[in-house]
Amino acid sequence: MSEASSKNALFRLLGVLTFILLTLICGEIFVRLFFFYHTPDTVKQHALPYVPAVYARTMFAPVNDRIEMSLVKASGAKTYFINEHGSRGASFKLPKPPGVRRIVVLGGSTVFDLNADEGFDWPHLVEKFLKENGHHQVEVINAGIPGHTSGDSLGRLYTEIWQWEPDYLIIYEAWNDIKYFNSLSYDTPLIRLIKPANPNADPFKNYQGTMDYLLSYSQLYVKIRSRYFAWKHRGGSEGRFKEERRDSVEDLGLAQFRLNMKAFVDISRNINAIPILVTQATLVSPTNTEEDRKKIVYGYVGLSHEGILQAYEKCRQAVLGVAREKKTDVLDLLPQLQGKSELFHDHDHTTPRGSEEIARRVANFLDPLLKQSGER
């Protein structure tokens, strides 16, 4: 090769490298200007304080601090306060002060109310409405933890929440249990199917080695990194996506759900609390529009639209059946709110209007019960 040809090849190589470098610099500037600044460190800093637990897959660390979810995009940044007892909301006293009537609400993210800013989650709106109706000594505790099934709620009840001295216990579950309905079998019962949480395994919150840490100074790299791990794990905030789309659910998972509801009633009564079962509301309905269906993440449960409808109805019938058998109070919320798109961000998480609707109906249901117990 001649000297001139070598110089031309070198110039072309330098031109390509310069173009790549300028593209990377422009990409870096663009990402920093138009996207959230985040690394695994900032994601962890602005994440809910999950820690592993023995009787549930996770619980909240008793941080007694405000968590600013500044990385949330769907409904804007949110602020949550996690108190020293590991529940959402202001602190409460133990032992329970005389005269206080304490209501504890158990469930997953639909109880925690992810899309509601602090003080506007529906359990605390229930307290607000009850106080406006004259129940000044009532106290509502939001014990919801995103991801929890009825089994997780049950585990927390008999290992922790009983110490809070609740007068009333409300459970609001379905969707998180439905995720496991078609996975349960005689070979994989629930205890072998659901694994304990490992916070260190989350690549979005943990660097994957020294090189990953060093490269994460680049926001362009972090953006590509996040897309890669989202693709690799094929999931979202509620877990991995399932490829299957079944039209029905197996009976074994439903039997586990029914057993959990029965145990909830029995344990509540064993600690002298009044159990209240509430059927879970959902956007999923036979009349959903195409826009509604875009909000429903079918991959989380591995069911078709008809399959999810069947699963919710079977959960509802299980809850109503347990209420009849155990002669306990039940609020059948599902048919009251089902399919009302203005109330839901997605399949089951509520908009501010949806949170208020649930809160008003629960408060109206509790009002006569509190009046009757106050007259005794």
Name given to the CATH architecture of the largest domain: 3-Layer(aba) Sandwich
**Widest sheet, order of strands:** 6-5-7-10-11
What is the CATH topology classification name of the largest domain?
Rossmann fold
Strand fraction equals 5-15%
Helical stretch tally: 14
Poorly predicted runs of 5 or more residues = none
Query: How many domains, in number, for the residues?
Result: 2
Q: Could you tell me the number of beta strands?
A: 11
What is the 3D shape?
A: elongated
Q: Which CATH class of the largest domain?
A: Alpha Beta
Coarse structural class: alpha/beta
Describe, in plain words, how this protein is organized in 3D.
This protein is an alpha/beta fold. It folds into 2 domains: 1-34; 40-197 and 242-375, Rossmann fold, CATH 3.40.50.1110. The chain is 45% helix and 12% strand. It has helices at residues 3-34, 40-45, 109-112, 122-132, 150-159, 175-178, 190-193, 210-215, 219-233, 251-270, 290-295, 305-326, 334-337, 352-375; strands at 50-52, 58-60, 65-69, 78-82, 101-107, 138-142, 168-173, 235-236, 239-240, 274-279, 329-331. It has a 5-stranded parallel sheet with strand order 6-5-7-10-11, sandwiched between helices. Strands 1-2 form a two-stranded antiparallel ribbon. A two-stranded antiparallel ribbon has the order 3-4. Helix 10 (251-270) packs parallel to helix 12 (305-326). It is elongated. The model has no long low-confidence stretch (mean pLDDT 91).
Structure summary:
With 376 residues, the protein is an alpha/beta fold. The chain contains 14 helices and eleven strands.
